[in-house]
Amino acid sequence: MNRILKIIVLNKKRIIGLLLLLVTVFLFVYNDAFLYPKTIVRITRVENVFQEEREGPNGEIEKYYSQQLAGKVLNGSHKGKEVEISNTYSSSGIQNERYYLFDQVFVTVDSGGKQGSILGKKRDMHLVMLAVVFLVLLFSINKKQGGLIFISLLINMLIFMFVLYRYGEGDDLVLLAFIMMLVFSVFTLLFAGGFHKKTLVAIISTVLTTLLCYGIYEIVVLTGNRIPYEMMDYVVSPGDLSDLFLTGVLMGSLGAVMDVSISIAAGVSEIEKTSPDITIADLVKSIREMGYDIMGTMISVLFFTYISGGIPLVIIKIKNGYTLYHLIHFHLIFEIIRFLMGAIGIVLAIPVAGFCSALFLHSQSIRCSGKMIKENLKDIKRWMSIGRNKK
Amino acid sequence: MILTLFVILFFLMLFVGGNRGLDSFFALLRTIIAFTINVYLVAWGLPAVPVTLIICIFCVVTVLYFQNGVNDKMHAAAISVGIVVGIVILTAGPLLWRAGIGGYNEIEQYEEISMYLSADLSISMAAVSLAAVVLGLLGAVMDTAVAITTAVNEVYVNNPQLSQRELMLSGLHVGRDILGTTVNTLFFAGLGESIMLAVLFMRNEDDLATILNSKSLFQELSGILVGGIGCLFIIPLSSILIAGFLKKSPIKFDDFSR
Fold first, then answer.
1. Do A312 and B132 touch (CB under 8 A)?
2. Among residues 220-239 of chain B, which lie with CB inside 8 Å of chain A?
3. pTM for this structure?
4. Residue B173: in which H helix or E strand, if any?
């Protein structure tokens, strides 16, 4: 406890600075209504009245409440006026929204300027708070590394948006996706590993593994049952759903594959640095050892990350009487395929990255391959001279 | 399709990992079963957040203690995971609640399927969404914690005269190396998941104000951001805890035999 207090006292300036930053950002996004063209109301009075009970499909009792809200308009032509809004919500909140005191909401105000109806909650404040806390933590753990990660995330976002824009203009999605993934892996790995041979190895192994994943995916899709793409969340246009899904799947596994590749390449380059005379057999052994450690935990990371996103909808569907089989094959199928492809990518990346780093980073194999290339060149020269003699 | 991929995954894990690959595969199966039980318990009407906490404890125990043994490094990892999950529920929970994370978002609300699914289920969807965020964070947080505590333990075994402070610093140092890759994994997983949503925003020609305040974007991003925050927060926490554990208690013999 004393130690923590000491740390706080020592870093007083920095901590106060961070707190000031947080408060400033919070105050700004709390009062940024002037930036919006839509009318925004801050709710200043809430009255909830119980309305009725409705029975659900399994005898659940859902309680409905009506809300009488009053709030102050924060921007636009009605600024400063008070408007009355009415709303209903239920205990589950599946299809409706409950509003609390001091919430900010987008509204349309009727011509009299007294009554309003809600369009939606203003969520930028909450989103910005989460993002700012994330960035503050990122930078406080390590300024340099945090900055690099931040820049690489930013660049990747921009590339992603640019690719979406090109796709909107009508370019072929799969081709774009492959170019995008190449650019992603080059940038991300350069930022993670710096200008070093291990980065090159990691890039090569990432590209190879992603191509292998793509091959497996295509074969399985061709031989298996049709995927019910129309059941996907956020269905846009029925034409290219399979391509969109494929891009998402490969992109998801790309992150994990890059992670494994750079870990193994960095590990091998570290081993080469400390013991340059290591034999190929020992090297393979330590690559396998690294692989074991990565595999289990990375796969469970992907599992939790992907499948948890589907929980809310799945619970609604279970309550409505869907069976487990139906859920897995028609509703959770997209999350499950994303997860399985990511896991396959992780496991594949271990031997591929190991092979690439042994080939490029292991000094003995470099010597060997150098010798081989020299001899091949000699052979080629000999063949060429034979050809010339024949003429 | 799913079955084929699952079989491919099984054989790959077997070939690449051998016996330990098999172990990881069974650990994955255990997690899947725990997950399914969790979903069904919540669907039967038990409160979402407490049930999820119990399942979290089960996952922590099986993943940490069954796979890595009962020792100081796992105690430190388990305690730091517990603290992070607690802090996330206490701080991010109210924030997500107030932001209205639960229920259908603008897009799902007008999809065909939500028209004929009953909405009178009397389960608080905000609590379910919070539980989903906590579960989503759990994997990445456990991964980071275990990586740090095992690395610090390794440093300590090779160099037992290091002080508590030096051990903590070495934990932070390892954390920096892990940081980038974990954040990237989460980031790309999220990007791959949200590509459909991004295309939809583009097709609808929504303006930035609409996108920033939409529930759909918030639901996608909050999981990734909270996961990232958890991963970052656990780096100093688990470093401090493992340093404390190693310096207070005498070294156990099973640490040497490993």
1. yes
2. 220-223, 225-229, 232-233, 235-236
3. 0.87
4. helix B164-193
